[in-house]
Design goal:
Number of domains: 1
Helix content: 25-40%
Distance between the termini: 31 Å
CATH architecture: 3-Layer(aba) Sandwich
Number of strands: 10
Strand content: 15-25%
Largest sheet: 8 strands, mixed
CATH superfamily: Alpha/Beta hydrolase fold, catalytic domain
Amino acid sequence: MKIDIGGGVRLYVDVDGAGLVPDGPQMREKPTLICMHGGPGFDHSAFKPAFGQLTDLAQVIYYDHRGHGRSDPRPSSEWNLDVWADDVVRLCDALGIVKPIVLGQSFGGFVGQRYLARHPGHASKVILSSTSHHMGLDRKLAAFERRGGPEARALAEAFWARPSHATFEAYWAGVRHLYNTRPAADPEAGSRTLANIEILLHFVAGEKQDLGLLQGLARAECPVLVMVGEDDPVCPLEDALEIYEALPAQHRQLARFPGVGHGAWRDDPVAAFKVLREFIAE
């Protein structure tokens, strides 16, 4: 379904699981987990069906960021982190969600970090998964070279430093398999994604180049879980450790997954969902 979040902006939203469930003589309200997808330029489909296993603990909300996927197209002037971060609040206001648990994967984690900085008291908990706080090109290139040799490094440098349709197509064809350490459990998942490469190129050529999200993390007022695969080449371990260190000590938690790449639930679903379940339930 599409939800109007104000100003005529409609986001595609999907809901998995009941929010109210029978519990003896009462109806018990479960927390709401909002899942923010990666990219930019992709959609929410990568979360499905895996995150459906959390519906015994929480009502799971998937949505496509403004301008993405099945959400309404929007002008490029709105393709920025401030707008996408504020959309979390707008969406919650439209749906009547109070104190959500907000999970951001990869680019969704960029949105999550900006959301924490701009709306530090809004969430009950935040999960930053497989994400970075800056471009960190040197780290990316070194990580891709470790995973795929000089050719992978060259493809990564060409795209991240000089984003275009041509450099992205070569990069995606040549290094996408290096993002993870195990073959995809669902090899057709990528073909289900609705991609808008114009958003990706716009962001990588612009805001991504000077991305600096650490400073705002000190404002966090809720528990924040940082999840990182130790073999993630695109959002390296060092970035996650710096995100963790920038958060208030009383709120931060860190989960490292050895032998795991981008999106811990893809390479080690048992360990990743154990951590997620414990964080949601605590």
